[in-house]
Amino acid sequence: MPLDQDLLARLKRHEVLEALRAGERVDGRDFEEFRPIELRTDVISKANGSALIHLGNTQLVVGVKLEVGTPYPDTPDEGALAVNAELVPLADPTFEPGPPDENAIELSRVVDRGIRESEMIDLKSLCIQEGEHCWVTFVDIHVLDHDGNLFDASLLASVAALHRTRVPRAEVVDDEVEVDETETTPLEVRDFPVSVTLALVDEHLLVDPCLDEEVVMDARVTVTVTEEGRICAVQKGERGSLPEHLLDDAIDLAVKKAEEIRRVVKAQL
Amino acid sequence: MPEEEPERLISEDGLRLDGRKPDEMRPIKIRAGVLKRADGSAYVEVGANRIVAAVYGPRELHPRHKQKPDRAVVRFRYNMAPFSVDERKRPGPDRRSIEISKLSKEALEPAIFTEYYPRTAIDIFVEVLQADAGTRCAGITAASVALADAGIEMRDLVAACAAGKVDGHIVLDPMYYEDGHGEADVPLAMMPKEGEITLLQMDGDMTPEELKKAIRLAKKGCKIIYKEQRRALKRKYGEEE
Question: What is the predicted ipTM?
């Protein structure tokens, strides 16, 4: 018998709100405090780049695979980027096997925009032969343990994996691409986008929501910030609304926290 | 749109390619109750966007285990007609439309008294017949009028409008060319009465201050849309302003 998620949410809501009223979060953190982040790179030797992240109890692995493909007709001198997320059933009792659902698609598209819009990858450097051959960068997010805030954990691990990605040597011989996996160069990366997700619970903005908080949150907003402190993506999600007077605060808070988190993560690379 | 690549998107006297001022909307047309079979419907034009929305419900939800004992389940399908864009779009949902459907549902649900309709489904369908940038906003605008037309009890209408950044200027309601060649896009939906934001996205490159300015401008656009939504409903249900 599956747990009634709505019933569970109502019980949790009481617990979370009780704590908030006392000025605390369920897990004892400050409202603006991230959970501890632990990052390990190069965990998958079959991938061209990889990273495993723990964000509190949330755990996921990202693998970057490079494949030779054809450039898009409108960008003949650029490589391509494809981000995908799998919410596999081992990570959460509500995740189901099958093709990506709307939650997985939203997650991967928000991460995609963080990578793409920050222009952290020079897609031109992934062109092998203009109009003919290019590298396609597949970033695959594999969630292992879901304790909230998959958005920030996924982008951190993806960016870390891309920073560790090595591009094999590719040469065009007789219109065919020959790949030498033994000779590699680092992927050219030029930014370090970090997203900060805030949960709105009862007029409070909580940084890096854990699952108990996500189950009861009214709305979620994710702000992705580049190294220069510019915004490259924003996404509001979930069934509630955000009071307009909280928005400016949310943006400022995200910019501040992004810088702090980037420092924490970079030190582990 | 211009045949050749224009050098700049904003002219020296501060006008856009279609002659609009930065804070000016495209022409809007909204009609309530345009379909016979649906419980509620609406038609929206914003610039060259042509969008129809229909609402079915509250109606019985199958399979039954998906019913919620204390509220209605809101479902939303955003769909683009194959002929709505320059290059024919393959029919059926893609990742983009699945994301838009999810966010649009979440943009409208805060306005609906779902608790009045336990165990039911409220189905919202948006068909984009012609796309000219800002389809997700026009779709939400249309869907909200269709919900009211279906007689579903709501806290407020939801109005949606985008702002963008082109040539370093923050502009209201970007059209197709600006959307493709600009630096950033910020779609926003809100319940104007209480000032609650129900949809917010951004992609591109902006400073935090530019983002705040774009949000303010998009909110201004929502208020213009809101007036037109109310006018459309009053036109259908008597009480002309």
Answer: 0.92
